[in-house]
Amino acid sequence: MRHTSGIGVLDKAVTVLHAVAEEPCNLNQLCLRTGLPRATAHRLAVGLETHRLLARDDDGAWRPGPALAELGARAADPLITAATNVLPRLREITGESVQLYRRDGAVRICVAAMEPPAGLRDTVLVGARLPMTAGSGAKVLLAWADSHTQRTLLTESAFTERTIAEVRRRGWAQSAGERAAGVASVSAPVRDSAGSVIAAVSVSGPIDRMGRRPGARWAADLLAAADALHKRL
Question: What range defines the domain where residue 156 resides?
């Protein structure tokens, strides 16, 4: 669940931005996604368009605007900065694709990724929104989520409450063919300076290479990478 600032118009504008970021939409679709009255949704979207935070495509639907990329390019994110120093080594050790995920409500977002230079790979683009109901990264993020989020998402998950309890016990998660057929992965939690889990670092690749129990091979390296990220934070 997203945080609210208590400033109504700001929270509504951010809701509009998130709705459009999911997929370009017209006014009717925007109202459905946000639950906002038609006049309010239109007024906010047009205002955001004026500031170039939203733009229109050829069909007249709103999409994220160029100002978002311009602002993002100037943003300093300690987690992303840490990832640029840690992920290359993890990729070198494993020879597989590596990713860093953050949870946003009922989805996880890839905020950093690197791929091996050659061979069959599991490509996850930065910005990709993946489900919180399948895959080792989802298990890690859900294992340390609040109880309400756990109860809500576990009803639709490919894994159980017992699974995430085991993830918390051993400190890492694995999956094989869960999120995508033929793909295996291992993930570990990344903690901030206060010890709270804020992300999941993952290694993924073809099951034929990683095996159906990839944790036996790569869990120690994932835990080391997660610790390296934690120390840089």
Answer: 78-232
pLDDT in tens, 79-94: 988 999 999 999 999 9
* pLDDT tens profile 109-157: 999 999 987 766 777 888 888 999 999 999 999 999 999 999 999 999 9
Same domain, 49 and 82: no
Total domains in the chain come to 2
119 Rama sector, left if φ>0, alpha if ψ -120 to 50, beta otherwise: left
In the chain, how long is the greatest CA-to-CA distance?
Answer: 56
Q: Tell me how far apart the alpha carbons of residues 3 and 87 are, in angstroms, rounded to a whole number.
A: 29
Is there a single domain that holds both residue 192 and residue 220? yes
Tallying the residues shown for the chain, one arrives at 233
Q: Would you say the pTM of this structure is higher than 0.90?
A: no
CA distance 174 to 185: 6
Determine which helix (DSSP H) or strand (DSSP E) holds 34, and give its type and residue range.
Answer: helix 27-34
CA 196 from centroid of its chain's CA atoms: 16
> Cα separation of 188 and 17, whole Å?
30
For residues 122-133, b (16+ Cβ closer than 10 Å) or e, as one string? bebeeeeebbbb
Q: Which amino acid is at 36?
A: L
Terminal Cα-to-Cα distance of the chain (whole angstroms) = 24
